[in-house]
């Protein structure tokens, strides 16, 4: 894959080599993200951070990643008052706004809209989520996290066992992650969801034809023997009736008791965030906050590294990071933590 | 005209010399805007980008122009929750907010509000549109575009023929552009609009007393022999009745068929944007998108150059651009376009 | 007090030494804020400017202060669409967003929320106002202004006479300021408010036990002989009935006539801003705008200095300001003012 000048629209663009390339550059970003050193390689470049649908953490993560490389950020949030609402085409919006920046990160509620925008854009476009369709940087940061967490336990993605639990039908993140994982070898997928919300057939077919072992179930039972548990939200409105929803309430929850009973002591816990940690949400409870295997905040941290890597690659400066290094003279560690 | 430290509130401030000065500096901005070189002349300066009325493209254009000169941008959008809504005077707002930046770009829905704000401001204020009143940077970018497009065809503003079509009564942009064009010689204006929406008398008087030829009409007929066609939107709500609106529907539209029938093969097509390109809008159709004479996106590009020039002139750094030049090390061209 | 890495959550953290330290650094910030010189000491650092409740002037003041030290700003405004609204805990939000910046300035409508957020944050957090609870940078800028204004008249905080007028019950700023002033010697407080809106007992107790003279009254009478008059807003909805409100209307107003009649010719006039300067507001009138003792805009200016000082101290770069100095090459003074 040729990164320089490319749009990043879908996980389908990535083969094993491209993923290795992104992860290698992401590794190089660690000292900059952790404030050991600075790089000003993109000093003077401008990111157009176009969030036609609000998403605080994804928006700020893209902006921070660009700032950490030395660049500037121009933003727009929401679209109530934008020209699009007055009948402007995405083509026109793209032609105009793409002349205001060197690269664009874009989120939009409509599936396919980011690709449509990219056709009119004069600069590379990175998909920050287009409705139910794709969110490739989330999938890449999830895979990067899995790889790092497993390496920490002297394991690898090849041969691992991952449990995905919750709404596997509408959960965009588990679909994209599954596509990326399909490129690895001998992965065991255990897919735990209500029957109404099970993994779509096309994903199951992809995993099957790639030779992975897939177990589909409606409940956690006995020892899951999993290396990773990837928890997602189940939204009540996905069920036909409140009765259906009530029937499943709590069966797809993860908390300290359930984790201890069904998982290994070092099974890594992931979630795409934000999580609803209120007790009545039955999702992923706060009583796991002190568990060292809870990787959900490391996922968010890794998102910055992945986005930095994609910016550096698409703008063709991944080999120039060290050349523009400077020292960090301030201290951002908390004194009392 | 003395630019350093001046507010830019109205096109009436500009004489021929001032326009020449702005356009000369705008020409110098091309290599920076096109990423051939960088200048950090405003490194450390802060733009207060105060959009009390949302306008994504104008806001981002001002911000980008300031970033391209090396400066930082602090922004505010909308005013629902601002102090103004709690009874604060524009004078107070100006006194406070103007101490947070080196220069201000401001849009506000109320005519005259930007000038009122400028009286309280301690730093120069550039009007980014104050209701029905003025939008001087739009008029300057329109004039700059006309000059550049005509030069491309070995023509000049003196002696040209421009058709303005659509709502000429409420269209702020055509009024301001007409005032600027009045300073040139022997321009032929053809003004095409429904009778209810014709050009105001004061503008007609100005053009007449400056010796220009003005043709007023309600329809396009035969060969228009125009060098420029400047299309604007007609909003249905401007008519007394739906019947009146229906009567005119489609008569002030520009599309491939109408263009080919009535205009010369190289007549330049302009529009202040955003355009409603939905078929039912009857405004400026997408079937002209591939026509090389469609200058609407070049207008938007030129807006950045004009705003960069005004920032450099009002902050007194127009002679220092080259001194703070650095190289551009990234590549923002799309690989596949 | 150890500043490096510390959260700034409450005025209660500050002793006399800490205040001296902040004010000494604030003094050093004057040439940077007044554009005589620049410092790039925080070049590459990122401020997370998290305003979960909108406040244009406080938000922009924090952002500008960080830019003036050379840093970048990533912002969020409002919380309707944020993850918090979807059930995310402040702990989760803090863990995620704090990995996107080097320091955080935060405003939130709920009392105690900023301290709660700070517990989850990995970087220092500065409280930009948490509901009715605290707004420590406002209190510090108020105290800094009092000190500077009095020094201008060869007076000091010790031994001064301050009148506080208006809503002293719900006015967060007068509570915090009183706590800071309590650390000085022999201050005379005259507290003028309707009985329903008088200063809370705990503040009165604090001032009394620190040996200050406190006069409580419901009206201005005769010569007030004050060095400072600190005016706050009375909101009609604070009264039990419209009749009660009407009874007090205008009795806690400050305008030219009242000032001349009751105060000394050089009594300094302060207000936390924004003020409602409409005539019917009966608050602080525009007819005092030309009075040189009106310090309300100098308060806002000083806010930038105080915030710069707190950023430099918490990030441990207060001793490096001069090392990263550069020249200012642009001119931001207005030509005609």
What multimeric state do the chains show? homotrimer
Order of helices and strands of chain A: HEEHEHEHEHEHEHEEHHEHE
Total number of helical segments of chain A? 10
Mean pLDDT of chain A: 93
How many E-type strands of chain A?
A: 11
Structural write-up:
Three copies of one chain form a homotrimer. Chain A is an alpha/beta fold and 337 residues long. Chain A has two domains: 11-134 and 302-327, 3-Layer(aba) Sandwich (Rossmann fold), CATH 3.40.50.1370; 137-297, 3-Layer(aba) Sandwich (Rossmann fold). Helices cover 34% and strands 15% of the residues of chain A. Chain A has helices at 16-33, 56-68, 90-97, 113-120, 136-152, 172-181, 201-209, 242-248, 256-262, 296-314; strands at 37-39, 46-51, 72-77, 103-108, 125-130, 161-165, 188-192, 213-217, 228-231, 268-270, 325-327. In chain A, strands 8-7-6-9-10 form a five-stranded parallel beta sheet, with helices on one face. Chain A has a four-stranded parallel beta sheet with strand order 3-2-4-5, sandwiched between helices. Chain A is globular and about 55 Å long. Chains in contact: A-B, A-C, B-C. The A-B interface holds A 2, 4-7, 41-46, 48, 72, 74, 76, 81-83, 86-89, 91-93, 95-97, 99-103, 121-124, 315-317, 320, 324 and B 35, 38, 40, 54, 56-57, 59-61, 63-64, 67-68, 70, 72-73, 78, 273-278, 281, 286, 289, 297, 300-301, 304, 326, 328-337.
């Amino acid at each position: 894959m040729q990164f320089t000048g490319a749009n990043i629209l879908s996980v389908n663009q990535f083969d094993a080599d491209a993923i290795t390339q992104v992860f290698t550059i992401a590794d190089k970003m660690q000292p900059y993200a952790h404030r050991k050193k600075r790089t000003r390689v993109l000093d003077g470049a401008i990111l157009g951070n176009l969030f036609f649908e609000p998403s605080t953490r994804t928006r700020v993560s893209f902006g921070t990643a660009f700032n950490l490389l030395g660049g500037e950020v121009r933003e727009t949030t929401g679209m109530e008052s934008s020209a699009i609402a007055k009948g402007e085409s995405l083509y026109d919006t793209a032609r105009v706004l793409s002349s205001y920046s060197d690269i664009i990160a874009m989120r939009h509620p409509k599936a396919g809209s980011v690709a449509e925008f990219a056709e009119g854009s004069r600069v590379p476009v990175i998909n920050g989520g287009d409705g139910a369709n794709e969110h490739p940087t989330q999938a890449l940061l999830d895979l990067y996290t899995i790889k790092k967490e497993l390496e920490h336990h002297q394991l690898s993605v090849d041969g691992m066992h991952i449990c995905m639990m919750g709404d596997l039908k509408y959960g965009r993140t588990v679909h994209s992650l599954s596509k990326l994982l399909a490129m690895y070898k001998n992965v065991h997928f255990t897919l735990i969801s209500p029957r109404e919300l099970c993994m779509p057939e096309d994903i199951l077919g992809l995993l099957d034809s790639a030779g992975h072992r897939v177990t589909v179930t409606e409940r956690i039972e006995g020892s899951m023997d999993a290396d990773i548990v990837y928890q997602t939200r189940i939204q009540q409105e996905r069920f036909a009736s409140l009765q259906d929803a009530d029937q499943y309430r709590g069966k797809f929850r993860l908390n300290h008791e359930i984790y201890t009973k069904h998982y290994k002591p070092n099974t890594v816990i992931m979630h795409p965030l934000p999580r609803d940690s209120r007790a009545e949400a039955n999702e992923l409870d706060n009583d796991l906050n002190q568990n060292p295997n809870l990787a959900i905040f490391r996922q968010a941290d890794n998102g910055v590294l992945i986005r930095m890597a994609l910016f550096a690659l698409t703008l063709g400066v991944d080999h120039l990071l060290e050349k523009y290094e400077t020292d960090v003279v301030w201290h951002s560690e908390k004194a009392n933590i």
